[in-house]
Amino acid sequence: MADKTIRVLLVDDHQVVRRGLRTFLEVQDDIEVVGEAADGAEGVALTEELRPDVVLMDVKMPGMDGVEALRTLRERDNPARVLIVTSFTEQRTVVPALRAGASGYVYKDVDPEALAGAIRSVHAGHVLLQSEVAGALLSHDEVGGAGTGRGGTLTEREREVLGLIADGRSNREIARALVLSEKTVKTHVSNILMKLDLADRTQAALWAVRHGLSG
Length: 215
Description:
globular; alpha/beta; about 50% helix; 10 helices
């Protein structure tokens, strides 16, 4: 089981929140809390040092906030998946966080079991968006600036892959669904991001939903 344990870092400026998250997550057999940070700068430093699989990141923090921390991690090509956990639901908070590279977004009042499921989901490579968050993104003017809209340049296979990304499928699941190797799926994903001028799978999923390619 050791090699299957999901290593998690908690980044939140409220000690009580971190303590609550740690208390719950430590009873999960497949999740290990490897550290805590009280702001974005410390979160970036510990993510680089501890190499967690998943980072639970608050958005509003003193100093470097969660969005800036996300951008910094992406600039450094850090592979950690970042799950935003926050009490803020406004579009001006949601959109920048996801466009900065977050793999998912849940609220602090999320059911504990649902939070554990969210951690497992983003760790598996899924894009996790609650329905109201996806709606906010799709209705926000900023979304129109993500991607060039050159969907006509995609091959039929790439459109199939993109649709499955929008459905939250991991590369492994896409490979099984389309009877392809994972390496081939990764190549298709890279081509999709390049052709549509998108930064990551989250933006790809949003582009697909916006253009009617999701299931």
